[in-house]
Design goal:
The chain is 41% helix and 21% strand. The protein is built from 13 helices and 19 strands. It is elongated, with a radius of gyration of 28 Å.
């Protein structure tokens, strides 16, 4: 969430940069400025009335002491009027502040200066493409391979729950567990502290990281308890630090978590939802960092390099993209995506997004820090990345590693799977 002071001091910048995200902020900013001016006036009027009442209250005691009863009663009558005025000012101020906040949260985060304009993922910049040996002797899609080797049952998942909820079986279940453990072990080696968070969160948590009110239509809502199934571990892990004041010496805060993730994926259809391409429930390992603003972009580079190293160890063809304005999320300032190649489908599949949110989430979370020796607090910067999402990684492994012996398992996973082939 942008701060009012930043908006008012940088109107042209905010309007201009948000156009990169195809967002016209002019009208909302005018409303924000008007509401903030109204808020300041009400606060001043309330403070003035309170000061006057305090002054009169002191006079009343003196008047009674000096037997000036009539003047004292007249002064008391004024305080009654002032109390009502103060009460009304307070109610009006609360109403204006609520309306002001409701407008501010409609503004997306400002994209980084390196983000270029664009309408959709077709306009993203391809920064790097790395080809790897593809073992596939024939191009069989992963959903057919899953059935052939009896490792993933999409029909059974449909029976138990519905489309997008697969059942992993036998070696399919074991390779899922292998990927989870491999990703967590790699994160630990890179200095991330593992946590196991809840997979349901409250509204405050959803608001803190920006899923609410922007993405409520994509989240599963447990209505009776007013809780949300998490779309990513980013939500509970980042919210660990909601309403927390850190010291600059605490940076960097590095957390990782494995969770199942849940997304409604409303509006998805066609080949994009076939097999493991797009699921309602899937497993993912998330990395989260909270960092000093001066070091946040160096940290983003570090996180991008880390995700790349994991994909390289899996020996998969991949590419790295910088998202354009139209494909950068509501809350992110800069995002890099990783895609792996699907040999049978002959297309690239997104497996990770690594983003810097600058102070946007921190302002919503009230996540602050103090420099050593200073009393004033500042907003921290938050970053996160998928490291990695499992379904499309598994799809790429299955499709790219087909051999006459079966599906060849990447070497780094063999110590976890205890087998070299799915056959």
């Amino acid at each position: 969430m942008l701060t009012v002071s930043f908006i008012k001091e940088n109107i042209d910048l905010v309007v201009g940069r948000l156009k990169i995200k195809n967002f016209d902020a002019s009208e909302i900013i005018n409303e924000i400025i008007s509401l903030d001016d109204k808020r300041k006036l009400l606060k001043q009027q309330s403070d003035n009335a309170q000061a006057e009442m305090n002054s009169i209250s002191k006079e009343i005691g003196i008047l009674f002491k000096n037997k000036k009863i009539e003047e004292a009663n007249s002064a008391k009558a004024k305080t009654v009027v002032l109390k009502e005025s103060i009460k009304q000012f307070s109610e009006d101020l609360s109403s204006v502040e609520t309306e002001l906040n409701s407008k501010i949260v409609l503004l997306p985060n400002i994209p980084h200066e390196s983000v270029k304009s664009g309408k959709s993922d077709e306009d993203n910049e391809i920064l790097k493409t790395v080809d790897k040996e593809i073992f596939a002797t024939e191009k069989v899609p992963h959903w057919e391979l899953a059935k052939k080797y009896d490792i993933i049952d999409f029909e059974l998942g449909n029976k138990l729950t519905g489309a997008g909820f697969p059942v992993y079986k036998g070696k399919g279940a074991k390779i899922q567990r292998a990927l989870i453990n491999f990703f967590l072990d790699e994160a630990e080696k890179a200095g991330y502290n593992e946590v196991i968070p809840p997979i349901m969160v409250n509204e405050d948590s959803g608001f803190g990281t920006g899923q609410l009110p922007d993405k409520e239509g994509q989240m599963y809502h447990v209505g009776v308890d007013n809780l949300y199934l998490i779309p990513t571990a980013e939500v509970p892990v980042t919210n660990i630090y909601r309403d927390v004041i850190l010291s600059s010496e605490d940076f960097p805060v590095k957390q990782t978590a494995y969770t199942p993730c849940f997304r409604r994926e409303a509006g998805s259809y066609g080949s994009d939802v076939r097999g493991l391409n797009r699921l309602h429930q899937f497993d993912k390992i998330e990395i989260v960092q909270i960092q000093h603003p001066d070091k946040a972009y160096d940290t983003l580079t570090e996180m991008v390099n880390y995700v790349e190293s994991i994909i390289q160890k899996l020996e998969l063809p991949y590419r790295v993209l910088r998202l354009c304005g139209g494909d950068t999320s509501f809350t992110a300032a800069l995002t890099f995506d990783f895609e792996v190649f699907s040999a049978a489908q002959e297309k690239w599949l997104e497996v990770s997004s690594v983003s810097n949110f600058e102070s946007y989430q921190a302002n919503r979370l009230k996540l602050r820090f103090k420099e050593k020796g200073e009393k004033k607090t500042k907003l921290a910067h938050t970053l996160n990345g998928s490291a990695l999402a499992l379904p499309r990684i598994l799809a790429s492994i299955l499709e790219n590693n087909q051999t006459e012996k079966g599906i060849k398992i990447p070497k780094v996973l063999v110590p976890y799977t205890k087998f070299e082939y799915i056959d």
